[in-house]
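User: Fold both of these, please.

Assistant: Here is the first one.
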Amino acid sequence: MTVSVVQFGGSNCDRDAVSALSHLGIDAERVWHEDGLPEDTTGVMLPGGFSYGDYLRAGAMAAQSPIMSDVYEAAERGVPVLGVCNGAQVGCESGLTDGAFTTNESARFQCENVFLRVENADTPWTAAYDDGEVIEVPIAHGEGRFEISGERYEALEAGEKVLFRYCDADGNVTDAANPNGSTGNVAGILGERASVAVLMPHPERATLDDVGGTDGAGILRGFD
């Protein structure tokens, strides 16, 4: 299989993503957004960075790139699609998932390790974990606050589409453990299909024992 890691102008985590996937034995290559998805694409990753300088809103301009039509069609066919950080913002802006990511409650860029509680282990992206398991991965964002209306948030919960919530080391979901003010401490969600997911933390930065630990590897295994 070949995972296409889409590179937009301003992406800066595409090489990290390819390296992390390759380390896990998953074939991956960078694809420039103007070139469209290759025919042999069997997975798509929208990486982090600052596509188009985050002008207008983070991810808003990249969401209008023609390649996103290819990504949307691939998702409809069941091809696994994962958006990380800026890629999560692109995913929401393009309609792959519900909700939006807005300016952190602190109004500051935040780069730190956080704890996540696995809310639904019955998905490709969380199959390596148990329900309620706590993992540690880094964040690096200024617009990572997940926001959604009350009714739509309830629909996410009812449909078991919340993948991860920010928590403390013991798995307690608290305001203090919420780094950006996200609704319901939500850190990652599913799209209409379980094969489509977006999350704000960076699993590709947590796949090596000597560099950030390996807690994020299970998420990338969703491409296996």
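And the second sequence with its predicted structure:
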Amino acid sequence: MKNVAILGTVGLPASYGGFETLAENLVRYHQEHDIDGEIVVYCSAKTFPERAPSYLGASLRYVNLDANGASSVPYDILSLISAALRGAEVILLLGVSGAIALPFLRLFSRARIVTNIDGVEWKREKWKGFARWWLRKSEYWAVRYSHEVIADNAGIARHVAECYGRSCEVIAYGGDHAVQATGQAFEGEPLPPRYALALCRIEPENNVATILEAFAENRELPLVFIGNWKNSDYGLALLARFGANSGLRLLDPIYDAGVLRTIRSGAALYVHGHSAGGTNPSLVEMMHFRVPVLAFDCSFNRCTTDVRAIYFTDAASLRAAVAALSPERAEKVAAEMQRIAQERYTWDAIGHAYFKLLGLRGTVSLQPQGA
């Protein structure tokens, strides 16, 4: 029976974040399919002061540091050292923050290290100078010293092959949990009867300003945009510039899965502005709702949507795409998004792929749905 340690997340139960949702669905899949081996998930004691000993059959182990920001580096390093010293046979590292420790870990531990390198984080506009250099080196250390590397998108796999001459396992994220949530009423001011939807962290590489400019004068189809507007100078500036526009509804973050399901289900179309990061969880989640997707034109989004969404490059092209979207075209794109999501982005399929790579077997069938 293998002992698998999952590192690099804030911890469980998941409250927010792609890696936390991934970890939660992996331990759930492990439990539901009666897979052999034991799973330990490392958690931030700063986030979980009550420190439950287990969750969905997985043991929880705590590190007394924050899991995000600059402290993510020592947090991941201490988690790696702890997992190795406690005899983990397989370490699943989510992200590259602590990857500087991997060459040293390989000297004294026989653990098999599997790393999901996330997106090409160092290319994000918010990182400058030393931080960008560090993230790029961390990516190198992760690719060089992991036994297996996971890319969540074919575009990321191409980047790794071109930069480092190494192949990756391509395993994306599931999104069906979003459509399985029980709908709950939105308690804020009533939403328009028909609206477009955008949802993301308010960061420049998510093309937030572009999306707002495209919808600012659209009275026929208002835009509901959910994000953390008040967490940065960038967000506050956009809130001041666009907050009073009658064609826009700028909402604070919503973490309740039931409320999100209600808002997503009511959208006439979804606008996805991410330009970095590989397969974005918010996109694969929305694809399950059978809603037409208008995505920023980059290789990652084209890979995720199998080149079947509608793409834009700036405010003018987004505005034109919305104006030209006929009911027939909208239905065709929506159906394609849902089909792709149901084939590729279910947690059953993702769990199957991960545990096959980790070398664990279950007594319940490990065939993904539709196989």
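Residues 327-344 form the longest helix (18 residues).
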